[in-house]
UniProtKB/TrEMBL annotation:
Name under which the protein is recorded: Glycosyl transferase
GO CC annotation, single: cytosol
InterPro entries linked: Glyco_trans_9, LPS_LOS_Heptosyltrfase
Top-level taxonomic group: Bacteria
Keywords per UniProt: Glycosyltransferase, Transferase
Pfam families registered for this protein in UniProt: Glyco_transf_9
Assigned protein family: Belongs to the glycosyltransferase 9 family.
GO terms for biological process, alphabetical: lipopolysaccharide core region biosynthetic process
Gene Ontology molecular function, alphabetical: ADP-heptose-lipopolysaccharide heptosyltransferase activity
Length: 347
């Protein structure tokens, strides 16, 4: 499908990290098909981050509306037919949404990654890949319609006002070390006293420590516990930033520490090094893409302990369960990685 294409629909509803991965592929498509009109069906929260992205019309799918969301999607596209739909999500809800989007060609994942009726709503597949990162999977959608994408690049849509708001929040701070401590599930979070230990360690090395996160109860409780344990001064921005402002905060930071969470991938899009903490998912598949060498993980050891097999012997992307896995990551290992990154990145 490398011939002239006039209309393309992207279907990727969630989550923050995944839509960050998808942006690189979408912008590669824009370079390959500058004449094409691109429409992106996306989740409500994710749209807040990508709003005003040049050359893309966003159609918000609000999952909280239940059946009404599908009805609205069908009505929005009534009488329209895209040249191609790039169906970049295998979740059941996304597969139902794909049925509401008319397109001549509907490209989905290869058989190995298809699930939850994905195969029934597509008529073409991307090329299978060996042990791909999520981002690399999205790149194959771009390649399927003739776009070149080797090393990913991002041009994230932020305004001067977003940048100024971030500057004001960080006023007076230098050598900024951001801790974005909360994942979507509590079991994927590191221990608050250990985050605090890293905050104290970074402060002793001359860094200004900043806590970021959303307004949820989980994130507020975690940040409060970190502040209680820490001895150093910490600028607490938890619940105080919009997504675009947070992106600008991450862009102004020298280094980010985070578990498997969206802000880690947001930081990648703006070129800020990330130390990722991983226990439940394979960082080779979901880790901070440009900084996978900076991951501290216990995933592979626990995979062998729980399954008796390596990642290469199991279905790619196998996830682990357990509320105590993150506690296996020691402060010593993370401080060693901190020193390594500071030296390597000349921070």
């Amino acid at each position: 499908m490398s011939q002239a294409i006039s209309s393309i629909c992207i279907l990727r509803l969630s989550a923050i990290g995944d839509v960050c991965h998808a942006v690189a592929a979408v912008q590669a498509i824009q370079r390959a098909h500058p004449q094409a009109k691109i429409t992106w069906v996306i989740g409500k929260v994710e749209a807040m981050l990508l709003a005003d992205m040049p050359g893309v019309e966003f159609v918000i799918f609000d999952k909280k509306q239940g059946k009404a969301a599908f009805k609205q999607l069908r009505a929005h596209f009534k009488g329209h037919k895209f040249d191609v739909l790039l169906h970049m999500q295998v979740a059941f809800r996304a597969n139902l949404a794909a049925r509401c989007i008319p397109a001549r060609v509907k490209i989905g994942f290869d058989k190995g990654r298809s699930k939850e009726l994905h195969s029934l709503v597509i008529n073409k597949r991307i090329t299978p890949q060996s042990e791909p990162h999520v981002l690399e999977g999205f790149q194959n959608f771009a390649r399927a319609i003739g776009a070149e994408c080797d090393a990913p690049t991002w041009d994230m849509p932020v305004s001067e006002a977003d940048k100024q708001e971030a500057r004001e929040l960080l006023q007076g701070l230098t050598r900024i070390f951001v801790i974005s401590p909360a994942a979507s599930k509590a079991e994927r979070n590191w221990l608050p006293e250990r985050y605090a230990a890293l905050a104290d360690y970074a402060a002793a090395q001359g860094f200004s420590v900043v806590l970021t996160g959303g307004p949820t109860e989980l994130e507020r409780k975690l940040s409060d516990a970190i502040l209680t344990h820490a001895q150093c001064d910490i600028t607490n921005l938890v619940g105080k930033t919009k997504l675009k402002t947070l992106l600008c905060v991450l862009a102004q930071a020298q280094l980010v520490l985070a578990p498997d969470t969206g802000p880690a991938h947001m930081a990648v899009t703006v070129g800020t090094p990330v130390i990722g903490l991983y226990a439940h998912s394979n960082p080779k598949r979901t880790g901070p893409y440009l900084y996978q060498d900076y991951v501290v993980e216990v995933y592979h050891d626990n995979l062998m302990a729980q399954k008796g097999k390596s990642a290469q012997q199991l279905k790619w992307g196998t996830r682990l369960k357990g509320s105590d896995l993150m506690s296996q990551i020691s402060v010593e290992r993370v401080t060693q990685m901190f020193d390594q990154v500071v030296k390597q990145e000349q921070l």
